[in-house]
Request: fold
Amino acid sequence: MKKSFKYLTTKYSIIYPDEISDNTLFEGAKKEVTVNFYERDPKARKLCLEHYGYACNICKFNFEENFGEIGKNFIHVHHIKPLSEIDQEYKVNPTKDLIPVCPNCHAMLHKKVPAYSLKEMKDIVAQRDS
Reply:
């Protein structure tokens, strides 16, 4: 979309085109992005959740308890050591390498590189709750 500007004058000064702001915000432009995608084994996720259940291991949030049927069996599964750090195929242990976390805690874990540890994030939540 091409913008056109006019030179505006006021009683006291000239306003140049680059000084005009119409406060129009644009979103939705298409952009091509190339990323690495690390394969995950759905069986490992299933075994992790059978072991730990569907409550967040950090904040204890449970989607089914809070949202009813639509929240049933919803939770993210976090790799304690990010696959991007391993950078190769490896044999995953579903109860030692994976942990269920809610999307909010999952996002917060990844707010820095390397990711926060589970203990660090649990301590942050505990400080909030005290």
In short: Residues 42-129 form one domain. The chain has a mean pLDDT of 85. The radius of gyration is 24 Å. The chain is about 30% helix and 10% strand.
